[in-house]
């Protein structure tokens, strides 16, 4: 009985250690994925900014053109 208890305790400790290691690995993978997502968002924003600025300029030009037409 004592041997079985010692063996069981050893197995539980081993499984606990494996669980902790797997949890740490999973946290690392999650961090890497989150950092990748942040990088993609930054890149998308960087690429979108010139387009947004161009759209804003086009709207201003359109507003000015409409005002000129209204003045006629």
From TrEMBL:
The keyword Coiled coil applies. Residues 5-43 form a coiled coil. Keywords: Coiled coil. This is Tropomyosin. It comes from Rubroshorea leprosula.
